[in-house]
Design a protein that fits this description.
Keywords: DNA-binding, Transcription, Transcription regulation. With 101 residues, the protein is α+β, with helices and mostly antiparallel strands. The protein contains five helices and three strands. It is elongated and about 55 Å long.
């Protein structure tokens, strides 16, 4: 019974992450951010990398930020995003996400 409770707890904990990663654009953005490392990337850099329009990347990054997976960092008129959720970072490794270095 204890193992079942643990498994159900895992499902509860992971469901929001899987929901965020269930969108192809969001997953591609996360994989790009993960690959390029702990640094921050601008919306336009990420849009170019994953091959989407700036508004599409911006909307997807906003959803990820609201979910606590990425964090926007304002630098004047430029907003950079960085991956901040350790659970998501670990999951990206499990799905085959690699780092550049």
């Amino acid at each position: 019974m204890e193992n079942q409770e643990h498994l159900m707890s895992l499902a509860t904990d992971w469901a929001p992450v899987f929901k965020l990663m269930g969108d192809r654009t969001r997953l591609r953005l996360l994989l790009a951010m993960h690959y390029f490392g702990p640094g921050e990337a601008t919306v336009s850099e990420l849009a170019d990398i994953v091959g989407v329009t700036l508004p599409t990347a911006s909307a997807a990054l906003q959803v990820l930020a609201e979910g606590g997976v990425v964090e926007p960092v304002k630098e004047g008129r430029v907003t950079r995003y960085k991956l901040v959720d350790a659970t998501t970072h670990a999951l990206l490794h499990h799905v085959g996400g690699i780092h550049r270095h």
